[in-house]
Specification:
Elements (H helix, E strand, L loop, with lengths): L1 H16 L1 E2 L3 H29 L3 H10 L5 H8 L1 H4 L7 H16 L1 H8 L3 E2 L18 H12 L9 E6 L6 H10 L1 H6 L2 E9 L13 E10 L24 E6 L3 H14 L10 E6 L13 E2 L5 H13 L8 H14 L3 H12 L4 H8 L2 H4 L7 H12 L4 E9 L6 E2 H4 L4 H7 L7 E8 L6 E9 L13 E8 L3 E8 L1
Helix pairs in contact: 1-2, 1-6, 1-7, 2-6, 2-8, 2-12, 3-4, 4-6, 8-9, 12-13, 12-14, 13-15, 14-17
């Protein structure tokens, strides 16, 4: 039966999560197991949803179809009547997934034997994926990063560099920070520094050819020995002396211009560092050209496959609610997840909104929102959150400003605005800021939690007061304490 095969695969995957796997072939094998597990669970989830809308006879047919003798062919004969009415999955899809599960199960014994040669690692207790900094998915990629960091290089004349490449919003920063937070990594490096570039002047908007950067520490783990890591010139990092300490430097969001600065920095440090052998560099970027500066094969991140993304989205939306009690919402939720197309920000924002408004009519209205329909798959994080949130706000609420902050000072939630009257919204806006502070979403990173917060006011709808309509421009301000602030200001 498919369920039985999924139990076998899941137990093997869980066993692998508790091992330190350094062999790349074994990691690729684990990646295939994880992907097959999600595909199988998604298939059963779709069939179960179809049965919830079908009858008991159909239920009996599908249960008997998942036979231990030949699941693919028996499934083809058994679910024809259901699939003629419901179209979440096709007969060919059932055949393909069942055959793949059979294929991966055939090699599980050998996979378990390979795991027996791997060292065990300490794992935290399983918790809700949105609490305590737990990360969803990316286990194989995380282990590849850790394997790179713990590997002792033979060449001590240059720093080893690992590029992590992927589109904006795909989870590069989250992945790297979780890897740095792993006990094996934090105990291996005496100093871990996450650094980010910013322009010397955001307001002046200098010509691109004249743009210069400053380098600031986003977060420091360990003892830097009293070294002042605030450097106005990135090349000043060459002069930093960590003594005999093994260090890890992480440079985030590197483009082609910043790449040249980093290459100059690495060239200057080559052979001249007194730091302990084994110090490493990680670079995150959305540009494949930047990956050429790596000394090892880059890690390429893509959006999660839909079966895996669906379970991420479902956990945000239903969060402990029994799906059997709301089969109609499941269908709308799947349609919504497909529109969001792999966006983690979208799952958090839309998921929180739907979770607090479990009404099919409301869900359908949100699903039909033109703002969601026109969203790019991932896009720029800040702009994506602004555009999506603005389209989801009630008609009498207007977003005036959005900030990304390390401090959560929201007074209410996005979902709460939909059930609030204009008087309530106006009352919220009477606080010290003059706006209703709304938490749009939050990023639960291990040691750098960011909150995306909107300042909203009540607008003119059916007699309500409205902000004066004036032309506006967007001003981007860089602040090392509170992140990026994008404000709409009168021109």
């Amino acid at each position: 039966m498919i369920r039985h095969k999924l139990v076998r695969i899941h137990s093997s995957v869980e066993e692998a999560r508790g091992k330190q796997i350094a062999n790349d072939g074994t990691l690729r094998w684990l990646s295939e197991l994880i992907d097959a597990e999600y595909q199988g669970n998604y298939l059963l989830d779709c069939i179960k949803h179809d049965l919830d809308e079908g009858d008991e006879d159909d239920d009996a047919k599908v249960v008997s179809s998942l036979s231990r003798f030949n699941p693919a062919k028996r499934a083809r004969m058994s679910v024809c009547n259901i699939l003629s009415r419901h179209h979440d999955v096709t007969i060919e899809e059932i055949d393909r997934v069942a055959e793949r599960l059979q294929g991966v199960c055939d090699g599980l014994r050998e996979f378990i034997m390979l795991l027996g040669t791997c060292q065990p690692v300490r794992r935290p207790l399983a918790t809700n994926i949105f609490r305590h900094g737990q990360m969803f998915g990316r286990h194989v990629e995380k282990e590849r990063i850790i394997s790179f960091l713990l590997h002792d290089d033979d060449d001590n004349t240059r720093l080893a560099v690992l590029p992590v490449v992927g589109d904006t919003g795909v989870g590069k920063t989250t992945l790297v920070q979780h890897a740095c937070d792993d006990a094996r990594v934090s105990s291996h490096f005496q100093v871990i520094m996450l650094l980010e570039f910013s322009y010397t002047s955001a307001a002046a908007a200098p010509a691109r050819s004249e743009t210069t950067f400053v380098l600031r520490p986003k977060h420091v783990i360990g003892d830097a020995g009293g070294v002042d890591v605030n450097v106005n010139n990135p090349l000043d990092l060459v002069e930093l002396d960590f003594g005999s300490k093994r260090f890890l430097l992480v440079f985030e969001d590197v483009d082609t211009r910043k790449k040249q600065v980093l290459e100059d920095l690495l060239h200057a440090r080559t052979g001249g560092s007194s730091s302990k052998q084994g110090s490493k560099i990680i670079v995150t970027t959305n540009n494949r050209l930047v990956a050429t500066m790596g000394t090892v094969k880059p890690i390429m991140l893509k959006a999660l496959p839909f079966p895996e993304y669906w379970f991420f989205f479902r956990a945000h939306v239903f969060s402990g609610r029994d799906l059997e009690e709301s089969p109609g919402l499941v269908a709308v939720g799947k349609a919504m997840a497909k529109k969001l197309d792999g966006s983690f920000f979208g799952a958090k924002i839309v998921g929180g909104l739907l979770r607090n408004n479990p009404n099919p009519g409301f869900w359908r209205r949100v699903s039909g929102s033109s703002g969601i329909e026109d969203m790019s798959a991932l896009g720029d994080g800040v702009n994506y959150v602004m555009d999506l949130s603005q389209s989801l706000l009630p008609g009498n609420v207007r977003m005036c400003q959005m900030i990304v902050s390390k401090d959560r000072f929201s007074q209410t939630e996005l979902a709460g605005l939909h059930g609030a009257s204009a008087a309530q919204i106006t009352s919220w806006a009477q606080g010290p800021y003059g706006f209703a502070r709304v938490l749009l979403c939050e990023s639960l990173l291990p040691f750098y939690n960011l909150y995306y917060i909107a300042d909203c006011t009540a607008g003119l709808v059916n007699g309500y007061s409205e902000c004066e309509e004036v032309p506006c421009v967007s001003v981007v301000q860089f602040n090392t304490t509170h992140g990026v602030s994008i404000s709409s200001l009168a021109s």
